[in-house]
Each structure stands twice: as C-alpha cells, then as structure tokens.
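Retry 2 of 3 after timeout on previous attempt. Resubmitting structure tokens to design endpoint.
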C-alpha cells in the first residue's frame, strides 16, 4: 500500500514496477545491471476516489498519457531499491500536487488610511512636479 493521504492509498496490485537498464554513462555496470525502474499506474482502473481520478485525467502533465496512464522512469540512483523508492515517491508527489484544492480568493477593499496615504503622496508628487517648471518673472 502506498499512502497518499490519511484516507486515500494505492494498493500494490494497481501499479507495476519493471526493472530496465539505465541510460547514460556508467561504465561496465550499465550494460549488466537493470537498475532503472519503470512505474506504470492506470488512473482509470485504480481505486482512487472519483475526485482524484478526474483531477488527474484533466491535468495536462507530461507524465500522464492520453489514455490516462502515469509513466515514471526513475534512474537517478545506482541501486534498484533506491530507484523503486524514488519512483513511488514521485507518483505520490504527482498525485498530491494535482489534487490540491486551491483556496478561493476573497476580494478585499483598501482601508481608509491607505486611501488617505495614497492621496497625500499623490498631492506631494504633484506639488513637487509643479515646482519644476520654468520660473516666470512678473
């Protein structure tokens, strides 16, 4: 079980972890050991609540395919166990990030003191600029 929140978790049979060979430099080790992890998680087939599914499917995220499958490739560590943990952590972070409900903004009005300060500053700047003009002799 992967805990997402207090009430929501993902059972182990709803995602697949596949060991693959990592890309990039690594010497002889990279050709022999399958240390990278490929995580696949089908959103539509999961037991997540409908709210979570809808938010994930509506999101335009590069890790989510058009079919609603999350594909995460973890290869930043040298061991398979660390990459497995990293892939699961990235899945949890993705789900938590996309299912956060933004607090609605409540419009506020400026206070009376702030209005008065703004008008006083405006009057001060106006008088300063008016004194910059040409001096006229009577």
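Retry 2 succeeded. Sequence:
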């Amino acid at each position: 079980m992967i805990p997402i929140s207090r009430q929501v978790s993902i059972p182990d049979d709803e995602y697949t972890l596949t060991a693959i060979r990592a890309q990039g430099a690594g010497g002889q080790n990279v050709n022999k050991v399958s240390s990278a992890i490929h995580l696949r998680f089908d959103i539509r087939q999961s037991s997540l609540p409908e709210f979570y599914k809808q938010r994930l499917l509506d999101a335009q995220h590069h890790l989510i395919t058009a079919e609603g499958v999350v594909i995460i490739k973890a290869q930043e560590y040298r061991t398979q166990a660390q990459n497995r943990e990293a892939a699961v952590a990235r899945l949890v972070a993705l789900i938590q990030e996309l299912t956060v409900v933004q607090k609605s903004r409540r419009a506020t009005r400026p206070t009376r003191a702030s209005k008065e300060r703004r008008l006083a500053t405006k009057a001060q700047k106006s008088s300063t600029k008016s004194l910059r003009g040409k001096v006229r002799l009577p």
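Attempt log closed. The mean pLDDT is 87.
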